[in-house]
Amino acid sequence: MRVIAIDGPAGSGKSTVSRAVATRLGLDYLDTGAMYRAVTFAALRRGIDPADTEPVARLARQVEINVDDRKVVVDGIDATIEIRGPEVTRAVSSVAANPEVRRELRRRQQEWAQAHRGGVVEGRDIGSVVFPEAELKIFLTASEDERAGRRSREVLDLDYDTVAADIARRDYVDSTRLTNPLTIADDAVVIDTTGRSIDEVVDLVLSRLPAQEDA
Length: 215
Ligand code: CDP
Known about the structure:
Blueprint: E1 2-7, H1 14-25, E2 29-31, H2 32-45, H3 53-62, E3 65-67, E4 72-74, E5 77-78, H4 86-96, H5 99-115, E6 118-123, H6 126-130, E7 136-141, H7 144-154, H8 160-176, E8 189-192, H9 198-207
This protein binds cytidine-5'-diphosphate.
């Protein structure tokens, strides 16, 4: 099974680069952040406090999440747009800090890779925890300023300062949580995407692939 793990903080270029790498390699692509956002969306919809550990863990085990290239469907509802909205973004870090939620989503991510015969998987703990045996582990970074700039251009209704503050807060929570924090796996290749084009980064990633043995 061929798994490429791409981790990094918000705005580091993970999604764009991961999609492009998947296309170039003919692999499927999984956005695990969308899964944490989907659980958060389901909790908010049901009036469950995202910080309430037990009910959120139970919900994570029950909720039906369908993430594909274009859409995120949660219990039959198209949540593609809403999972990127400010309410979910504000609450997602506390859902992602829930150890039982992480256990459940890790199980689903591993199942996904089995079913898809590998893939390009992006997130925060993919190389360190979910696929420690990945063929290639990439950790993308970029300066705080560049990350906030990119994200505020994507999210048109939020200004730079609001986006920068949100990213800084999530970086902090994601890096300091007890269960599977955002870390650089020992054997990951770190790529700073500041000032680099998407194509350049994609080529750098592909250049680090181990040589394929002939089948
Ligand atoms: O792209 P952006 O950084 O805005 O976020 P995302 O990749 O959609 O992930 C949203 C949140 O989910 C992150 O801030 C993390 O708290 C969490 N997450 C995680 O804990 N582990 C993952 N493998 C992926 C996301």
